[in-house]
Amino acid sequence: MLTLIGLLLSLVATTFFGGIGRAHLDADVGTFARTLRTAAEHAILTGKTYEVFIEIYDGYYTVTEAPEEAQGGAEPAEPLVEKQSLDLSWIDEVEYEDGSRQYSQNMTLRATAKGWEQAVLFRIVDENDRWRYVRCDRFTANVAVSRQPLELLAAQDEVSLSSPL
């Protein structure tokens, strides 16, 4: 009887903490996606170019006005979004529209008045091997988030604003 109770408690704990882990991963990825969307929408609305600088290995990212757009050029522009990080997950792979892939180092994703300068797909994973996918679509402000694998889309003809998460 005690063995049965122990097994049931173990199952309940695993299910409970697994749900918490998924919620933390979704929150982590959701913040990253909202930051990307903010950069693209702000670029479209202001007509300026913004750069999302991402340290892939460490998971840090920030959004700043592109250097050529910064006023005066003498001082760096204030970040649109201060440095944030993926706390409970990491970017496992970045796929670009030309088919190339990146697994480490740093990258800069540019949002212009026409939307994303290029299409990119992020594959994000946590320590429990749960996956999330974030895709930025070229020439739009779209940022798609999914628990299921996503594929890069062909470039859109028109700029559109995406809906919030």
**Topology-level CATH name:** minor pseudopilin epsh fold
Strand portion, in percent?
Answer: 25-35%
- Helix/strand/pairing class, anyone? alpha+beta
- From the alpha-carbon coordinates, what is the Rg to the nearest angstrom? 19 Å
What is the averaged pLDDT score?
84
- Total of domains: 1
Distance, first to last CA: 46 Å
Poorly predicted ranges: 11-18
Q: Count the helices. How many?
A: 1
**Roughly what percent helix?**
25-40%
The topology string of helices and strands comes to: HEEEEEEEEEE
Brief summary:
The chain is of the alpha+beta class. It is 27% helix and 32% strand. The protein has one domain: 3-Layer(bab) Sandwich (minor pseudopilin epsh fold), CATH 3.55.40.10.
Give your account of this protein's structure:
There is one protein chain. The protein is α+β, with helices and mostly antiparallel strands and 165 residues long. It has a single domain (2-146), classed as minor pseudopilin epsh fold, CATH 3.55.40.10. The protein has one helix and ten strands. The strands form two sheets. A five-stranded antiparallel β-sheet has the order 3-2-1-6-7, with helices on one face. It has a five-stranded antiparallel β-sheet with strand order 5-4-8-9-10, with helices on one face. The longest helix has 45 residues, at 2-46. It is globular and about 70 Å long. The protein starts with a helix and ends in a 19-residue tail after the last strand. Residues 11-18 have low confidence and may be disordered.
